Each structure stands twice: as structure tokens, then as C-alpha cells.
Amino acid sequence: MSTTQSERLRELLEPLVTSQGLDLEEIAVDSVGRKRVLRVVVDSDTGADLDQIADVSRELSAKLDETDAMGEGEYTLEVGTPGAERQLTEHRHYLRAVDRLVRFQLAEGGELVARIVDVDDEGLELEVPGVKGRKATARRLAFGEIGKARVQVEFNRKDKKDMTEEEEA
Asked: What sign results for the dihedral spanned by CA atoms 128, 102, 157, 160?
């Protein structure tokens, strides 16, 4: 998708997404055979449920139908959320990932897997899991030290509520 089309779509759609209490995270137009697919990714600090996705999808569809932003050809509109293993690119993404395990590609090279404990304007407070029975260690990581960051899926981690209930028992 050209930068001009991307910018134009963002200007057109972002106010509608924001009016639904969501953030417009990404817009992509992909060709699938002869058809095009407009993918719109939305999110919020509390996540987006199916009703919100449906509402914003209807709003975006109506707006696109009344404009020529997608041109004359057929296209399919897909509205969704970033997914479990989202890439972190904005400050708000890091805030939403507090208490999540993240794989960091460091700007100077190397990799780090750690849990985000806190976020401020300059960087992150992390908890690096211990290896082979060792205790976790604290680490500070400035935003400038991060090349890429992606949330990791954890299948066996208990949430804070479960851990608190076990400690009380």
C-alpha cells in the first residue's frame, strides 16, 4: 500500500476508531488474487471485545462505502486486534504489556527474554527469569537499547489472582 493511501486511510478511519474508545494500531492493504483485503488492527488499554470489533467494523465499512478511499475495485474489510504475540512499537504497547513476558532484540545485538514490571518515559523495569533454580534478577532497559520487542505466549503461567489465592491457602 502506498504511503499516500495509507495516510489517507488513517486520516479517514482513525477518528471513527477513536470515537469507539479504541486506538488504530495498523492499516494494511494486501492483494489476494484479484481481490484486495483491507486489514485494520485496533486495540485499547483494556483490550477490545467482539462487540466493539463488530461496532467499529460497521462504522468503518459505512465510511469506506461513502468515499472512494479504496478506489473502484472490490475489497474485503477485516477488523481485528493485534494478537497474542504482538510486536511492541509504541509507548502505550509497553504499558499494556506490563506483567507480560517479552522477547527483546537488543539494538547493540543479542537477545533478552524478560517480564515487564514497570514502564516510564525513558524505559522499562524488567524481571529476568532465573535459570536452573536461580532467582529472577531486576534489570533496567532504556527504550534506545531496544531494537525489537515481541510479547511471548505463556501457557503455564498462573495469573496474579491464582497466585494470591495459593499464597493465602
From this structure: positive
Dmax (CA) for the chain in angstroms is 64
The stretches of 20-150 forming alpha helices (DSSP H) are 50-65, 91-96
State the burial class of residue 156 (Cβ atoms within 10 Å of its Cβ: 0-12, 13-18, 19+). exposed
Calpha distance 40→48 (Å, rounded): 13
For 47-72, write each residue's pLDDT tens digit: 888 999 999 999 999 999 998 888 88
**Residue 100 above 80 pLDDT?**
yes
Q: What share of the chain is helix, strand, coil (3-state, %, to 5)?
A: 30, 35, 35
